[in-house]
From TrEMBL:
The lineage of its organism: Eukaryota, Metazoa, Ecdysozoa, Arthropoda, Hexapoda. InterPro entries: FSIP2 (IPR038891). It comes from Cuerna arida. This is Uncharacterized protein.
Length: 222
């Protein structure tokens, strides 16, 4: 059996459990279309929704409310460098989603004009085309991918920390065993030293007794 101190990072990757990250990381806000077809909300975010022929009105594509920022980064997300020329997502200026125009956009006369032109819903959500919505889905897919990547990194770091703690614990046990052996050896040496002192004291006492007997015999001989 492999000792804990012998584990390496490659071993950790080999022993890593199967993760269902998609089940633990929620989809970004706005990824589900309230008035779309049932299967649309189950499709991956990087797949485009089709443009279906039909009467206008039943399916309304919206990306956010009037005067609210559209391109929102998720908390803790990293700056993306994979698309420097905005070929995946074009961050076009959207006046209806300019937060600095919120007070003007939500004036009663402005709202009435937008309603008359069919640009907003009764809940003040800005309507958009299917192409604009698919572009927004790609943006949400990037956010979702980044969230999945962060979740995987956190789990990897957690496993790494656990492996490091396990290795440190194994090293501590080795050090404790080494200290115990050293203490036992020291105790044994101390016990042997006391035994030798006792033997030496006995020999000295025996020598004194023999010397005393010799002196006694010498006196008797006189």
């Amino acid at each position: 059996m492999m000792d804990a101190s012998e584990f390496t990072y490659s071993d950790m990757l080999t022993l890593r459990p199967e993760w269902d990250l998609a089940a633990s990381v929620p989809r970004p806000k706005g990824a589900n279309l309230p008035h779309g077809l049932p299967l649309w909300n189950k499709k991956p975010l990087n797949s485009k929704l089709p443009l279906l022929a039909g009467p206008s009105g039943p399916i309304v594509f919206t990306r956010g409310k009037l005067g609210e920022k559209l391109w929102k980064s998720a908390p803790g997300s990293h700056f993306r460098l994979s698309d420097p020329y905005s070929r995946e997502v074009r961050f076009d200026y959207e006046p209806a989603h300019d937060k600095h125009l919120r007070s003007w956009l939500r004036r009663p006369d402005t709202l009435q004009t937008l309603r008359d032109q069919g640009l907003i819903t009764p809940k003040l959500r800005v309507k958009c085309s299917v192409d604009q919505y698919n572009l927004y889905r790609q943006f949400l897919y990037n956010l979702y991918s980044d969230a999945l990547r962060r979740e995987a990194e956190e789990r990897e770091n957690s496993i790494t920390e656990k492996m490091m703690l396990k290795k440190a614990y194994a090293e501590a046990e080795k050090d404790a065993a080494k200290c115990k052996r050293f203490e036992d050896a020291s105790s044994k040496r101390l016990s042997n030293a006391k035994y030798m002192d006792m033997l030496q004291a006995q020999r000295l006492e025996n020598c004194k007794k023999r010397l005393q007997r010799i002196l006694d015999r010498a006196k008797e001989a006189e």
